[in-house]
Amino acid sequence: MTPATRHDPDLPAERPTGQAMLRGARGRCPACGEGRLFTRYLKVADDCPDCHEALHHQRADDGPAYLTILIVSHLGAPILLASFIAWRPSAMTMILSFGLGAIVLSLAMLPVIKGGMVGLQWARRMHGFGDEGAHA
């Protein structure tokens, strides 16, 4: 994009992807960074309570769950192998400790990943986030 077209009022304002994803990962509105993104554990608010940006367009669907499973399993597998080689705990100890660890880590990571994904969709104007006009 040339500098002359960058300031064209007909073009929508640029939305910084990294900033929007970090705001979403923190559970905040990707547009303003102030309003709460979630009304419940994983329920995205229809609108930001502070800047009134429409958030109902988000289509995260199963993406955050797949990414959470991918990350948790890639973190857990090497630790599981290393702890088994180092200490040789019983099978029940391994099942209980790593099962509980995987559940806790998954529950902690799921809202973070979903918020980041909503921030990405907002910044890239995906799924209707660019229809109302520019809101940076």
From TrEMBL:
Note the Pfam families from the entry: DUF983 (PF06170)
| Residues annotated as transmembrane | 65-87, 93-113
Report keywords, A-Z.
Answer: Membrane, Transmembrane, Transmembrane helix
Q: What is this protein called?
A: DUF983 domain-containing protein
